[in-house]
Specification:
GO terms for molecular function: ATP binding; ATP hydrolysis activity. The structure is a single chain. The chain is of the alpha/beta class and 330 residues long. The chain is 28% helix and 26% strand. The radius of gyration is 23 Å and the shape is elongated. Bound molecules: adenosine-5'-triphosphate. The site of adenosine-5'-triphosphate has 12 residues, from strand 2 and helix 1.
């Protein structure tokens, strides 16, 4: 690739979702000459990012296609926020290439088509809700009607409230709502539901689903695994700056292939294929990728057990298993 496509990313986005040009966005229309099939909206090719001695991203490659709802999962420090910051032009890669809407994420015209909610936001406490929404909307050629936006995010009636007077959950919902103000084609939401109670989380999920159902593309990170299971169609597991797994939630579970075999027993012989053992009173949980073989081995060994249960692992268990294996790619 030539230097001009190396996507130098320099301009910081000072407000969530805000761009800095009045050029019209190419929102929700495929780029001219786009190939058949979903267009790639964001792309990382062999991207590494260092912070001093820390290698936050390690030759990571990932494509996000139009219409996808992608969940980025990974433990603390995996590199999820760094990846989002590269996609939205807040940071530049140490090496490799990042593209947004077919060009540099630093291009203001491209950034007009996206919305962003960073992991942490500090909205001015003395501004009123409607002022912040209008301020962000003013950066975009087209914007969503304020009342409709606030209603969608459960903030109706708070237009005149100062930001400093909002609850933590209301502030977070406002920060997420701001990503949608400019009628974006694609949103990047970094842990959007952090700090929200169950009801607020569910209503935020509804708002995200609504955007997606209308053709919007979503990339979100989450520590809530049930959130990713509930929302995302595609799960990308990131660990130590690499993609460990990339598939549907069902596929990610299958990649780990881990089942939990539980029984009541005083003691068990050594058994083949046991990836992990947990004790909970007299219940023993064995993690295995081949539950059938394990149960056969239990019977062959004439182990004394009762109350046998075999069940699939949660995404969390699958994810921990993948991460523990530290495989470079799935
Ligand atoms: N500005 C920075 N300066 C130095 N190190 C950084 C900086 N930002 C991130 N890192 C380091 O890069 C690595 C990846 O961090 P990143 O925030 O991208 O991970 P994450 O997956 O988003 O984690 P979390 O889930 O905790 O938010 C971590 O080791 C982190 O400490």
């Amino acid at each position: 690739m030539t230097e001009s496509t190396a996507a130098p990313i320099t301009a910081p986005a000072e407000t969530p979702g805000a761009g800095d040009s009045a050029r019209p966005a190419a929102a929700r229309t495929p780029a001219a000459g786009a190939e058949a099939g979903p267009e790639t909206l964001a792309r990382a090719v062999g991207v590494s990012r260092r912070y001093g001695d820390v290698l936050a991203l390690d030759e990571l490659s990932l494509d996000i296609r139009s219409g996808e709802l992608v969940g980025l999962l990974g433990p603390n420090g995996a590199g999820k926020s760094t990846l989002i910051n590269l996609f939205v032009g807040l940071r530049r890669p140490s090496s490799g290439r990042v593209e947004l809407l077919g060009g540099s994420p630093a291009d203001p015209a491209r950034r007009l088509s996206i919305g962003v909610t960073p992991q942490e936001t500090g909205l001015p406490p003395t501004l009123r809700v409607r002022e912040v929404v209008d301020f962000v909307a003013a950066h975009f050629p087209r914007s969503v009607e304020r009342g409709a936006l606030l209603e969608r995010f459960g903030l109706s009636g708070l237009e005149r409230r100062q930001i400093g007077g909002l609850s933590g959950g209301q502030k977070r919902r406002l920060a997420v709502a701001l990503a949608f103000v400019g009628d974006p084609r694609m949103v990047f939401l970094d842990e959007p539901t952090t700090g929200l109670d169950v009801e607020a989380r569910r209503s935020l999920w509804e708002a995200i689903r609504h955007f997606h159902a209308e053709g919007g593309t979503v990339v979100l990170t989450s520590h809530y695994l049930e959130e990713v299971e509930a929302l995302a169609e595609r799960v990308v597991v990131i660990g130590r700056g690499r993609v460990l797994a990339d598939g549907s939630t069902a596929e990610v579970r299958d990649i780990a292939g881990v089942r939990r075999v539980t029984m009541t027993a005083d003691d068990l012989p050594d058994l083949p294929g046991v990836l992990g053992t947990e004790r909970d009173g007299d219940r023993i949980h064995l993690l295995t990728s081949d539950a059938d073989a394990l149960v056969r081995a239990l019977v062959r060994a004439e182990a004394r057990f009762s109350g046998l249960e075999v069940r699939p692992t949660s995404l969390e268990e699958a994810f921990l298993t993948i991460t523990a294996r530290e495989s470079p790619a799935a």
